[in-house]
Amino acid sequence: MSDVLSPESVAASIARIPYARFLGIEFDVKGDELTLVLPFADHLVGRPNPPFLHGGVIGALLEISAIAQIAASSGAKTTPKPIDVTVSYLRGGKPMETYARAHISRLGRRIANVRAEAWQSSRDNPIALLHGNFMLKRED
Amino acid sequence: MSDQKPAAVAHSGVQIDDPQLAAEFAKLKGVFAPQTSAIGLKVTRIERSKAWSQVDWREDLVGDAETGVIAGGVLTTMLDSTCGAACQAALGKLTPMATLDLRIDYMRPAEPRQVINCMAQCYKVTRSVCFVRGVAYHDDPEDPIATAAATFMLTGEESYGGLEVAVA
User: Fold this and answer.
1) Nearest to A59 among B4, B34, B80 (CB)
2) What crossing angle do the helices spanning A55-74 and B72-91 adopt, rounded to 10°?
3) Does A16 sit within 8 Å of B66, measured CB to CB?
4) Do A89 and B100 touch (CB under 8 A)?
5) CATH number at residue A90
6) Distance from CA of A60 to the nearest CA of B (A)
């Protein structure tokens, strides 16, 4: 998992998720680190006055960061499927760019166990954390 | 904070038999939560401590282009919003709140091109926390697509802002 990630394989794994495009998710790869970037958009808001991101959007960003990280790390050509995820919400999501990064705790033959965090202005102050298991579909 | 606008709207399409709840949710008239509108989520029914909602299959909400199965994130938004509405229905009064924790178990893939339904029940309210369970399904809640267990914190703000659900 310390291998350098290929931006092409990350782009391919995210391109298989139309809903990631609906949210407007972009990504950045540096070495073996994949960061998802969610620019703010009005339709992502859950409570308007003052605006906060919908909790579901933050959960979705974390889940997609886990899926993209597993797909890129395992070289899987199919999209990993969530089995269970727990999202803890630490702070309200402000109307600004949001980032997410996932760390694979264990990549097994069938299951990947993943932790992910989402943050905005400072990585030291995450707005939400995810912990979950994902099913890898073997092609053979 | 008199300029605060509520985050959801109650249309006549939503079934609320309880007159007190109907009066309370009617206060939300005219404003949508943008993300719930964006995914086409509609609350269909409110009872004391319970809420039901629906979302239609849409191509841009798909999580796997190969299979056409709707994204887990859409279910996250649906379950989060419906659980929040069930808390409001348990409190009997529009109350600002924030999701603390949301666990989702994905039991089986949703069928492509089928409506997804959701039901949530708030089973415990304390002074500052609501405990909720939710289930997403096609026709039968006993055959779930996903289940959720969530906790919400009552934030005590002077606004309707915490209600993250568009009643339509």
Assistant:
1) B80
2) 150
3) yes
4) yes
5) 3.10.129.10
6) 4
Nearest by CB to B35, from A54, A83, A87: name it.
Answer: A54
Phi/psi at A9 (5° precision)? -70, -35
ipTM reported for the complex surpasses 0.90 = yes
DSSP letter string, B28-46 = TTT---HHHHHTT-EEEEE
pTM value is 0.89
Question: Which is the CATH superfamily of the domain at B15-154?
Answer: Hotdog Thioesterase (3.10.129.10)
Q: Chain B residues with CB inside 8 Å of A49's CB? A: 3-5, 7, 159, 161
Where do the structural domains in chain B lie, given as residue ranges? 15-154
3-state secondary structure of A41: coil
Q: Range of A116's domain?
A: 7-135
Give the per-residue pLDDT at A138. 58
User: Which pLDDT tens digit goes with each residue over A104-137?
Assistant: 999 998 999 999 999 999 999 999 999 999 999 7
Query: Rounded distance, CA A134 to CA B145, Å?
Result: 16
Asked if residue A104 is part of any domain, the answer here is yes
Render pLDDT for B19-36 as a digit per residue (tens, 0 to 9). 888 888 877 754 558 899
Domain count, chain A: 1
